[in-house]
């Protein structure tokens, strides 16, 4: 039985990863809360790795947020993520772990690159300004995977997930991503009988949304690949990155209408064009992952319904 350390196990992706790995039944899962282990603390992180000696690591701990949080806290998004990554790569390497899955993000690709976005478009053009610090930290994470693989023949793989949502997401009105932000706003407006809800930007940008339990499933699938397949993905000769998406996108206006219907809100939807749009479009090319035999299972409609039910249960708790 392999021992897996899931960093950030209480977050959106970490909790879904623990669920998928537990369901696989072939892992001993190791976790630490942020309070128990601050991953910015390199010494404490190395001590943790040397005492626990996990076989595998899934790196879901990061400073994460939506467009406004990214734009207003650039130092936090750059430095916290770099610090976490340096500690975890250092500890993982010192402990000689066999496999690592590092979580990047679709926002690391150039702002205006061709669609759908292939893995080899990385570093082919300028980044989107609203999340450049976060994107640069994540690009450093991808480069760390590759550098360790080249210098030390490690097996570190970087996943580039699209925008995610699901149970346990961050619903803070200012710092959250669009889908949980709108779900909460429509719900509050319905409860208060407000006549209108305001969404940010023009409503024109296009995004691709994946249910968090699907990313957990993708991580479990990749971590469980035979050594030859995992080795091929992390060979020193190739950039070890792989896109994880659903293969289709919608406009923010279409998303807002879907969330509005899920919540059964009957007022009006308005857009505040003084707020940033961010990247005009981010649709991932998922050919590489599909060729390996994995596809997302949850439609946006089903995922939205399940997420809203979870949101309502949390409100009652
Ligand atoms: N959510 C999304 O739409 C997307 C996410 N990703 C990537 O997936 C990964 C996970 O994201 P997500 O689950 O959404 O993020 P969350 O914010 O939900 O979870 C992040 C987790 O990391 C923990 N954490 C943060 N800083 C530290 C630290 N210094 N020491 C220890 N633990 C820490 C947090 O704990 P605490 O809350 O206690 O600080 C939290 O449990 C990230 O790498 C992110 O970039 C990629 C694409 C899209
Ligand atoms: C996952 C990804 O997430 C971020 O990039 P983003 O895709 O731009 O994320 P977002 O979800 O915040 O916005 C998507 C779109 O939606 C619009 N929008 C409307 N109304 C609300 C709203 O109420 N809140 C938010 N947050 N956005 C809104 C908003 O104006 C934008 O046009 C980065 O963290 C990036 O680094 C990253 O990795």
From TrEMBL:
<feature type="binding site">
    <location>
        <position position="277"/>
    </location>
    <ligand>
        <name>substrate</name>
    </ligand>
</feature>
<feature type="site" description="Important for catalytic activity">
    <location>
        <position position="105"/>
    </location>
</feature>
<feature type="binding site">
    <location>
        <position position="207"/>
    </location>
    <ligand>
        <name>substrate</name>
    </ligand>
</feature>
<feature type="binding site">
    <location>
        <position position="185"/>
    </location>
    <ligand>
        <name>substrate</name>
    </ligand>
</feature>
<feature type="active site" description="Proton donor/acceptor">
    <location>
        <position position="134"/>
    </location>
</feature>
<dbReference type="Pfam" id="PF01370">
    <property type="entry name" value="Epimerase"/>
</dbReference>
<feature type="binding site">
    <location>
        <begin position="103"/>
        <end position="106"/>
    </location>
    <ligand>
        <name>NADP(+)</name>
    </ligand>
</feature>
<dbReference type="InterPro" id="IPR028614">
    <property type="entry name" value="GDP_fucose/colitose_synth"/>
</dbReference>
<feature type="domain" description="NAD-dependent epimerase/dehydratase">
    <location>
        <begin position="4"/>
        <end position="225"/>
    </location>
</feature>
<feature type="binding site">
    <location>
        <position position="177"/>
    </location>
    <ligand>
        <name>NADP(+)</name>
    </ligand>
</feature>
<dbReference type="GO" id="GO:0070401">
    <property type="term" value="F:NADP+ binding"/>
</dbReference>
<protein>
    <recommendedName>
        <fullName>GDP-L-fucose synthase</fullName>
        <ecNumber>1.1.1.271</ecNumber>
    </recommendedName>
</protein>
<comment type="similarity">
    <text>Belongs to the NAD(P)-dependent epimerase/dehydratase family. Fucose synthase subfamily.</text>
</comment>
<keyword id="KW-0521">NADP</keyword>
<feature type="binding site">
    <location>
        <begin position="161"/>
        <end position="164"/>
    </location>
    <ligand>
        <name>NADP(+)</name>
    </ligand>
</feature>
<dbReference type="GO" id="GO:0042351">
    <property type="term" value="P:'de novo' GDP-L-fucose biosynthetic process"/>
</dbReference>
<feature type="binding site">
    <location>
        <begin position="8"/>
        <end position="14"/>
    </location>
    <ligand>
        <name>NADP(+)</name>
    </ligand>
</feature>
<keyword id="KW-0511">Multifunctional enzyme</keyword>
<keyword id="KW-0413">Isomerase</keyword>
<dbReference type="InterPro" id="IPR001509">
    <property type="entry name" value="Epimerase_deHydtase"/>
</dbReference>
<dbReference type="GO" id="GO:0016853">
    <property type="term" value="F:isomerase activity"/>
</dbReference>
<comment type="function">
    <text>Catalyzes the two-step NADP-dependent conversion of GDP-4-dehydro-6-deoxy-D-mannose to GDP-fucose, involving an epimerase and a reductase reaction.</text>
</comment>
<feature type="binding site">
    <location>
        <position position="138"/>
    </location>
    <ligand>
        <name>NADP(+)</name>
    </ligand>
</feature>
<keyword id="KW-0560">Oxidoreductase</keyword>
<feature type="binding site">
    <location>
        <position position="200"/>
    </location>
    <ligand>
        <name>substrate</name>
    </ligand>
</feature>
<dbReference type="InterPro" id="IPR036291">
    <property type="entry name" value="NAD(P)-bd_dom_sf"/>
</dbReference>
<dbReference type="GO" id="GO:0050577">
    <property type="term" value="F:GDP-L-fucose synthase activity"/>
</dbReference>
<feature type="site" description="Important for catalytic activity">
    <location>
        <position position="107"/>
    </location>
</feature>
<comment type="pathway">
    <text>Nucleotide-sugar biosynthesis; GDP-L-fucose biosynthesis via de novo pathway; GDP-L-fucose from GDP-alpha-D-mannose: step 2/2.</text>
</comment>
């Amino acid at each position: 039985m392999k021992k897996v350390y899931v960093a950030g196990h209480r977050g959106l992706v970490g909790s879904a990863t623990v669920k998928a790995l537990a369901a696989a039944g072939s892992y001993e899962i190791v976790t630490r809360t942020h309070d128990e282990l601050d991953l910015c603390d390199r010494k404490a992180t190395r001590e943790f790795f040397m005492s626990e000696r996990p076989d595998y690591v899934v790196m879901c701990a990061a400073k994460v947020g939506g467009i406004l949080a990214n734009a207003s806290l650039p130092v936090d998004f750059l430095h916290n993520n770099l610090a976490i990554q340096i500690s975890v790569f250092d500890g993982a390497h010192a402990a000689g772990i066999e496999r690592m899955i590092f979580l990047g993000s679709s926002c690391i690709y150039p702002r205006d690159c061709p669609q759908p976005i292939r893995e080899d478009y990385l570093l082919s053009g300028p980044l989107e300004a609203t999340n450049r610090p976060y994107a640069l930290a994540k690009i450093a994470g991808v480069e760390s995977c590759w550098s360790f693989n080249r210098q030390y023949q490690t097996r570190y793989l970087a996943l580039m997930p699209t925008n995610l949502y699901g149970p346990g997401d961050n619903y803070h009105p200012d710092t959250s991503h669009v889908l949980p932000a709108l779900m909460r706003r429509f719900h509050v407006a319905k409860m208060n009988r407000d006549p209108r809800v305001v969404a940010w930007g023009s409503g024109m940008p296009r995004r691709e949304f994946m249910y968090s339990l699907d990313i957990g499933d993708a991580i479990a699938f990749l971590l469980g690949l035979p050594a030859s397949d995992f080795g091929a993905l992390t060979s020193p000769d190739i950039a070890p990155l792989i896109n994880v998406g659903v293969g289709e996108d919608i406009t923010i206006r279409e998303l807002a209408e879907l969330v509005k219907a899920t919540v059964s809100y009957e007022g009006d939807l308005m857009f505040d064009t003084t707020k940033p749009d961010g990247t005009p479009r981010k649709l991932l090319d998922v050919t590489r992952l599909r060729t390996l035999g994995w596809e997302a299972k949850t439609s946006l409609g089903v995922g939205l319904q399940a997420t809203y039910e979870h949101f309502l249960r949390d409100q009652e708790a």
